[in-house]
Design goal:
Largest sheet: none
Number of helices: 3
Structural class: mainly alpha
Low-confidence stretches: none
Shape: elongated
Helix content: over 70%
Strand content: under 5%
Mean pLDDT: 89
Length: about 90
Amino acid sequence: MGPADFLWHLLNLFALGLLYGALAASGARLLWRRRHAGLGWARLLAWSCGAAAIATILGLVFFGRDGRIATYALMVLAVTLVLSWLGRRKSG
């Protein structure tokens, strides 16, 4: 496997997490404007994509391969918890 193939595999590994993180951050900004008023979209994006990437890595380590439904459930849970924590931290 060459460097280009490795980069392509790495990007594909995290693509769904990045997409879900972007959608979740955008949805949080639209639905809970007051709660996330002081937080920028880029900050929400970074935290949610980071949580999704960590969940992807944990699923890969635990199951030995990616693409498991449990990994996707962990990704949803991690992003939800991070966005909720950011909203509570800001308002609290």
